Automatic annotation (TrEMBL):
Residues 1-20, 89-147 are annotated as: Disordered. CDD domains: PAS. InterPro entries: ANTAR, Bact_Sigma-Reg, CheY-like_superfamily, PAS, PAS-assoc_C, PAS-like_dom_sf, PAS_fold_3, PPM-type-like_dom_sf. Residues 23-84 form the ANTAR domain. It comes from Actinoallomurus liliacearum. Residues 102-120 have a biased composition (Low complexity). This is PAC domain-containing protein.
Length: 524
């Protein structure tokens, strides 16, 4: 135990004055530390109660507490007091309200390797001197410790919090450090304290400009600073919090600089580990949701392994999940032969992604497939499907194209609700069919849908597709449509499998943000 190391030659009288000043400073700082301990105790009590209430770990509880404080615009201490005032002990009132800025240090800078929360920057605190009219023997009054005890307690507090303090006088170059600062910097006490204007010599190169700016701000007496820098110590990089304030005379001229140094390496490592764990858990959740959605899609939309034959046509299908894991969508298709009614063809896309979209897709597809057996025309089918979309429990929109192919007349009667019209490939030329009127499903209750009739020939090939094929965030929609027509014309074949392979190859990797469904239908 000893007084902070001091540089500069001074007469004995000044050294005595300095010692007395140091003792008074240590007393004030000890009072601040005691108040911080009380604050920390309140936060810890709130964390424990919240962890029990939410049935989670204390770290997760503290995260909830900080989020509540942030969202409410108050400090974590006030949030704790508001949440658990009824749980306070008899005769103990909640701490006085603070602004978020007052407690920013407490929320962001806990003790480093000790793994404890660092207390917030403290302002003036009430004295612990014995009030008038009370006996020193009053059990509610703690007598002021002796100076030596104060110094010992202060040194313990610095060691436990892995922090220390120091001062520097720019005019004389005199400086002093408390003993813990030497430990933080890994510096031999025999070498004396490192002057603040030489701090840049021990920081990593990337932090030199920041460190120079912080020192300049303090020396010029402009304002306090509170920042984190990285220093090199014993061959490793340590993360250091620097809190400093300038000391000015009555005329506002800077006289000295007071600093607090805290090694927050352990805390930051813990934060990064916690962040990595959260990301890992979130990725696991996303992966599981994607797996469930894909399983649902595969059970509803089994992909044929080869070209399927229907009366008067052959069809091939491709379904590509979105490139981003969490973007599984609600694309669907249907090709089914109906006795006496030819072949029912449909394709659609439900808004949204994940299990919700997959579930909505299943409802709409199954509903439309069942309605198709009534023999109703495609425009009426879409009108019914629109009503079904509107009665989904949550807000939902969708696009769809539905048609009936008559194999005897080779006629396609079709309607669309906000969906891309088919592409017709005939004699090496690709064109987009003119769509009948029809709007997005789920937009309005009384939507009306037109109907179109297209005469087809043997050898014709139709492409039905969802927007995931041609739409990209980095490309205009018209560019995607033009590319599809160009590739369809140069496919050099009317075999549905071959055409699909060349189309998907031309568009490259799966759409990262949306599923893609393409159906190629060859008229025989």
């Amino acid at each position: 135990m000893g007084f902070p190391h001091t540089t500069g030659d001074r007469p004995p009288e000044q050294q005595a004055d300095t010692s007395e000043t140091t003792i008074e400073q240590l007393r004030a700082e000890l009072e601040q530390l005691r108040d911080r301990l009380r604050t920390t105790a309140a936060i810890e009590q709130a964390k424990g109660a919240l962890a029990e209430r939410l049935r989670c770990g204390v770290d997760a509880a503290y995260t909830h507490l900080l989020q509540l404080a942030r969202d409410s615009g108050i400090s974590p201490l006030d949030a704790a007091a508001l949440l658990f005032t009824t749980e306070a002990r008899d005769g103990e009132s909640p701490p006085a309200p603070r602004s978020p800025a007052d407690d920013a240090g407490q929320a962001a800078s806990p003790a480093a390797d000790a793994g404890q929360d660092a207390p917030p920057a403290a302002g003036p605190r009430p004295s612990t001197a014995v009030p008038a009219g009370r006996s020193p023997a009053d059990p509610r009054v703690c007598p002021r410790p002796a100076p030596d005890d104060l110094l010992e307690q202060f040194e313990h507090a610095q060691r436990l919090g892995n922090l220390g303090c120091g001062t520097w006088e720019p005019a004389t170059g005199a400086s002093h450090w408390s003993e813990q600062v030497y430990v933080i910097f890994g510096r031999d006490p025999e070498e004396g304290p490192l002057p603040l204007d030489r701090l840049a010599a021990v920081v990593v190169p990337e932090d030199v400009p920041l460190t120079a700016h912080l020192v300049s701000t303090l020396v010029d007496g402009r304002e306090p600073v509170d920042s984190e820098i990285h220093i090199r110590r014993d061959g490793e990089t340590r993360e250091l919090r620097l809190i400093g304030e300038p000391v000015v005379d009555a005329a506002g001229r800077p006289m000295a600089v007071r600093c607090v140094y805290q090694d927050v390496t352990g805390w930051r490592r813990g934060e990064r580990a916690l962040t990595a764990s959260r990301r890992q858990l979130e990725q696991l959740r996303v992966d599981e949701e994607r797996r469930q959605a894909i399983d649902m899609q595969r059970s509803i939309l089994p992909l044929p392994e080869r070209v399927i034959g229907k009366p008067g046509l052959r069809a091939a299908i491709r379904y590509l999940p979105a490139g981003i894991l969490s973007r599984v969508g609600g694309d669907w298709y249907e090709t089914s032969a109906i006795d006496g009614e030819g072949v029912f063809l449909a394709i659609g896309d439900v808004s949204g992604h994940g299990r919700t979209a997959a579930a909505a897709m299943a409802r709409l597809r199954n509903g439309l497939s069942g309605l198709a057996f009534t023999g109703a025309p495609p425009d009426r089918l879409l009108s019914w499907l629109n009503r079904l979309t509107l009665h989904w429990p949550t807000s939902l929109t969708a696009t769809a194209l539905a048609g009936r192919f008559d194999p005897e007349t080779r006629t396609l009667t079709w309607a669309q609700g906000g969906h891309f019209p088919p592409v017709l490939i005939r004699d090496g030329k690709a064109t987009t069919l003119d769509p009948p009127d029809g709007m997005l499903l789920g937009a309005v209750d009384d939507a009306e849908f037109g109907v179109a009739t297209t005469s087809l020939e043997s050898g014709d090939l139709l492409l039905l597709y969802t927007d995931g094929l041609i739409e990209r965030r980095d490309r205009d929609l018209q560019v995607g449509q033009d590319l599809l027509l160009r590739v369809a014309e140069t496919a050099g074949s009317n075999d549905p499998e071959t055409v699909l392979d060349r189309v998907l190859s031309a568009f490259g990797a799966p759409n990262p943000n949306d599923d893609t469904c393409v159906v190629a239908i060859q008229i025989v």
